[in-house]
Amino acid sequence: MSSNSAATPESLLDELQSxxxxxxxxxRVQTLRxxxxxxxxxxxxxxxxxxxxxxxxxxxxxxxxEVSARALLASRLAPIDTAPPQTxxxxxxxxxxxxxGPVLTQSARLDDDTxxxxxxxxxxxxxMAISKRRVLSNAVTDVLVLRGNDEVVQSTVNNPxxxxxxxxxxxxxNRAEGDDELCTCLGLRPQMPRHxxxxxxxxxxxxxxxxxxxxxxxxxxEVPGAVREATRRARSSxxxxxxxxxxxxxxxxxxxxxxxxxxxxxxxxxEAGKFDEANAAIAALANLPVTTAESMxxxxxxxxxxxxxxxxxxxxxxxxxIINMRDDLLGGxxxxxxxxxxxxxxxxxxxxxxxxxxxxxxxxxxxxxAPAA
Length: 373
Known about the structure:
The protein is mainly alpha-helical. Among the domains are: 1-109; 243-362, no CATH class. It contains 24 helices and no strands. α17 runs parallel beside α19. The longest helix has 18 residues, at 25-42.
């Protein structure tokens, strides 16, 4: 141990120069092992300057060693929070997954920019390794879901530490159609936007609904066989309402009670992509429960939106903003705006009121809900 304790990164530099100039592959590997042992034994206590020196030594060595030695180095450095950052980055970008994998999955030294660059340019095996990290930001999951194959996407959705943007959730809902496994995993994710959860249920098979019921027997009423029942019951259950949705509804209620809720405000909500606010505002102006408005807003076609807006006396520009918001959030084929405009202009308020009465009748049996306002 005396020779080990006497060794320092500085004293290894001379040996490194000699090894790289004249040493065999075996000698280079032996030097790498000694440097790695030295670093791991004192990693907690090294200063940033000393870690930088180790970084230089490792960088010199890994350019001259075989794959198996690089893989061993990666597996040893990956769990260490203070591992030399440039070395970790180099290992992460290695084309050989046996080298890159441990670092991509474990290393706290990798920032989002590095993970995103790797996910955009490397193999599906690299994406799979990233998908297993303890924490994944929505910036990283966006790329994993966009580029990843079915296995990568499944692994990402199954990761409890993964965050997803609303756009990513939209992409996943569209991708889950016909994929019961992915559909089930998505249905169990917390923080999923309500309108996308309802769309997921609308596309889900009976098998998926049964799985969600089995996973949440106390909330089985929220996963019924009929989509409209799912819409009604999910809305009527306070426990199923996310905090974000509750805040949105409270804001709209305040605006309504103060007399500040009007068509202009609805258009602003829609243009900002705020579904919960827009939905609650439309419900208030049309004098409807939020559940009724929502069931019409998430229909695959835009007729429900036009009925609500016509009853509220809204102009086409506001209707267009709402339709565009729906298309952005729900995905799928974009709405034919010209045809919708012609339909909206032909639609009579009296006809819209009749259709709305039909929607109300469908929900008369459901538990009473608080007024939308």
